[in-house]
Model the fold of this input.
Amino acid sequence: MMSEHVFAQIGTENLSHAYLFESMDTEHARAVVDAFAARLFCKDKVPCKSCPACIKIAAGTHPDLMRIRPEKDSIGIDAVRAMTRNLSLAPLEAEKKIVHIESAHFMRIPAQNALLKTLEEPPLYGIIILSLSNAKRILPTIRSRCRLVRIGETKRPATIDRRLLEEVLTDAGNGNVDAAFKSVKFFQDYKDHKEELLQEIELYLRDLLIFKTTGEKTLLTDPGLSERAEQNRMEPAQIIRVLDLLVEVREGFRRNVNFQLSMERILIEMLEESS
Ligand SMILES: [Zn+2]
Done:
């Protein structure tokens, strides 16, 4: 289940209090966390699959392995606070206590900030694991406190021309209807990479929102964006609406909603306010 390559990254001799597991496959990441927990909690320190600890991990009932999953594509501050309270209590059966936050990029900014406090002073027995498809999707302040573990073949969204995407979104944000609709063709090229395209749009809009509301360059995934951000005249409230729409579009893709119509909805939402 868990390759030695992954184990070497985890660093079994020298465990970290916080990990970022980067994987495109949510279920695989979950299995790796379970295998990691089993190696730590198993009575023989190898996943024997038959001791009480191994059985409880497999059943999802081990009291010292806590898992948080997004609800409706969101992990709220309440979930993070509940996790922090739980983590402050010593482990019941194992020597360590593991918290796994799944699809951690769904934590809203306040939730990420709440988590940051725990990451700064974790209990000695505590291990916090965040899993997500791309480490860039989380605040750099969190990233810098976690040991990065790449699991399996992590597809990088490098196939998407970010500069061109930014131009397209700037045209739409500034109400340039003609230019924006020409860009539908640009989107067509990524029809088979829907999730990567949505991720890139999301990263850009989040950067734009952070820069427009805080003026802070260090929080951006693309620090170079700060110089170009003024060109996009979208207001923060509108950026938030488009980010919410992206959540809807992502759900739609799971139900096979038409790709082109979905991308047009995003463009229309961006065009609306400014035109
Ligand atoms: Zn065991």
